[in-house]
């Protein structure tokens, strides 16, 4: 190719990156001459001669100028493509690509990014404006998910220039409202697929990183506003603090610094069997979490939901499938073996009726066996499922502290479990989220505790 290609723009600009992706996909040689819009260089007399609309990018081809990224990438694919796959000649297929380009230009870049998000970056905006902007981003993702339900890529079952254009803006939106697989699975897969392009790093990631660095403080502020927006959902917890599963949820809510309302449901009085409660949870158990009129029951499901939806990162409930499986196993062990088998089947009868000494010994041995298993878990990690706090620790803490009332955890037998308990008690929310309800439990069973202590 003898024609000289000169691109005017800078890499932080999504439209410029769309052209960079296309140039690299076509393996074209070019010169990039910086035009920094943050410094107003697009308004210089020299640039206005190339593009009176004072925008970037501008492509120079042997002394001729083309502006607008969409027009440029269509030109490049049409003129230099080895075939027509990037910009099909078939009129219907081309119209589909063109529609995606116009959607990216009009709705995503101009309406969502420039009108809604730029205002959040540049000035203090009320929370209502932030929520409207975040909703607009989610709406964009939903539209793109629908496109990907039709094709593997955005406009066809193969790569087109529509993918390049959309990739550069979606990766910016993703900084503010992350694309998550449970809501937008095909969009998530498309993003990962696009990141595997051999020229992705130099043509998009480099400029994206520069953009992040430029707007780092503003991005942190936007993430906090997004968090505040999601936390605007009303959370209501049904249960009472003597219940270990309820306390596991209380620990999680406090760890995430979430506001919520606690509505008492006293299982000692059978309130979980009321008609009102059964509408929320037919299994007649506590806790139940209400999130804007939707109900979730079972503490393990609730705390996994809370950590996934409101966590600032995935440390409490890791996204890594192996790490998540370890957390899940600990939750099931707490549910099946500790709470149901050890506490409900073995210990509850000791508190409600006279049992032979053999049954007492068996119950106390069951507690010791639990401690031994937990000690083994702590030989692998600092906490129950990882070297950092996870929801598994919250779930296990609430039941272990009850068992500890009957069979004390002693350092000479279970040193790591002893240290873990002490460590957990240092959490700033331990007193209000666990100790308070635990004390109420102790007061109820205190008259019979002495009888069964090891």
From TrEMBL:
Alphabetized Pfam families for the sequence: GST_C (PF00043), GST_N_3 (PF13417)
Domain GST N-terminal: 3-84, 233-314
Stretches assigned to the GST C-terminal domain: 90-218, 320-448
UniProt-recorded name of the protein: Uncharacterized protein LOC115066421
Organism of this sequence: Bactrocera dorsalis (Oriental fruit fly)
Gene giving rise to this polypeptide: LOC115066421
């Amino acid at each position: 190719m003898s024609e000289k290609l000169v691109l005017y723009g800078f890499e932080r600009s999504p439209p410029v990156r769309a052209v960079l992706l296309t140039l690299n996909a076509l393996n074209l040689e070019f010169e990039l001459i910086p035009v920094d819009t943050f410094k107003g260089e697009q308004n210089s007399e020299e640039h206005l001669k190339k593009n009176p609309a004072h925008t970037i990018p501008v492509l120079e081809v042997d002394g001729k100028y083309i502006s607008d990224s969409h027009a440029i990438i269509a030109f490049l694919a049409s003129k230099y493509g080895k075939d027509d796959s990037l910009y099909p000649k078939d009129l219907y297929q081309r119209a589909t690509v063109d529609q995606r380009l116009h959607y990216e230009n009009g709705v995503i870049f101009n309406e969502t990014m420039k009108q809604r998000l730029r205002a959040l970056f540049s000035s203090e905006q009320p929370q209502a404006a932030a929520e409207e902007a975040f909703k607009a981003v989610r709406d964009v993702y939903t539209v793109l998910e629908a496109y990907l339900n039709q094709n593997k890529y955005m406009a066809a079952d193969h790569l087109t220039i529509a993918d390049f254009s959309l990739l550069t803006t979606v990766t910016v939106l993703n900084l503010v409202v992350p694309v998550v697989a449970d809501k937008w699975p095909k969009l998530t897969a498309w993003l990962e697929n696009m990141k595997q392009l051999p020229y992705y790093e130099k043509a998009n990631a480099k400029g994206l990183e520069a953009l992040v660095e430029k707007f780092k403080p503003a991005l942190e502020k936007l993430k906090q506003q997004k968090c505040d927006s999601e936390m605007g959902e009303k959370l209501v917890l049904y249960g009472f603090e003597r219940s270990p599963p309820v306390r596991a949820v209380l620990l999680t809510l406090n760890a995430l610094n979430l506001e919520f309302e606690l509505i008492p449901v006293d299982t000692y009085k059978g309130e979980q069997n009321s008609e009102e409660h059964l509408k929320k949870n037919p299994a007649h158990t506590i806790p139940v979490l209400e999130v804007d009129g939707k109900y979730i029951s079972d503490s393990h499901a609730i705390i996994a939901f809370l950590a996934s939806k409101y966590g600032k990162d995935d440390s409490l409930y890791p996204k890594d499938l192996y790490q998540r499986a370890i957390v899940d196993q600990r939750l099931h062990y707490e549910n099946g073996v500790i709470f149901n088998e050890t506490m409900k089947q073995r210990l509850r009868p000791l508190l409600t009726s006279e049992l032979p000494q053999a049954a007492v010994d068996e119950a106390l041995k069951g507690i010791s066996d639990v401690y031994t298993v937990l000690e083994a878990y702590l030989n692998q990690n600092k906490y129950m499922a990882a070297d950092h706090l996870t929801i598994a620790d919250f779930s296990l803490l609430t039941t272990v502290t009850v068992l500890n009332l009957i069979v004390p955890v002693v350092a000479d037998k279970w040193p790591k479990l002893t240290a873990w308990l002490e460590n957990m008690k240092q959490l700033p929310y331990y007193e209000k989220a666990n100790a308070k309800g635990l004390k109420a439990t102790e007061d109820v069973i205190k008259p019979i505790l002495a009888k069964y202590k090891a």
